[in-house]
Structure formats: structure tokens, C-alpha cells
Amino acid sequence: VWDLHNLFRRHAREIARSLRQRGVSPEDAADLTQDAFLRVLATPPREAGSNHNPRAYLHRVSHNLATNQLRRNRLVPMVELSEEIV
After folding, report:
1. Residues 15-62: pLDDT tens digits?
2. Is this prediction's pTM over 0.85?
3. How many CB atoms are located within 10 Å of the residue 61 CB?
4. DSSP string, 5-29
5. What is the C-alpha to C-alpha distance for residues 74 and 20, in angstroms, rounded to an integer?
């Protein structure tokens, strides 16, 4: 069983920074970092190898989430609305 609280304290900033370096906005990087930890909490890794390096596993999960988000963003165009329209 992983100590997610300790892992979050040790690696959350590093994961968010890594996502920002890949072009993810700071707000999305923070959300994706939290989502990665929630994903691991909800469905812990089953592979024996992933238990040996939780940091690498969390990075992989966060990068997969970011890739999925980028794909969704390409499929669903975003339109900026002016203050007047809103």
C-alpha cells in the first residue's frame, strides 16, 4: 500500500512542473497532478514493477492524463467569448 499523502508532498510539485514543461497551462497542470493522485488512489497499480518506483508511475499516469486532455482539446474546439456575449 502506498502512502499517497507522503508521495503527494514529495512529488506533486515536480509532476506539475513536468506537465508545464510539456506545454500544459499552470492551472491544468495543477488539476492533472491532483487527478493523477486520485487515479492512483481509486485504482492502485496491479503490476509488480510499478510498486518499485511510485514516482515514475505517478509521472506516467500524469503524462497519460495530459495526453488524453490534449487529444480532447483538439477534438472539441474552444471558442473565446467576449464579455458582451457572456
Report:
1. 999 999 999 999 999 999 999 999 998 987 776 555 678 999 999 999
2. no
3. 22
4. HHHHHHHHHHHHHHHHHTT--HHHH
5. 18
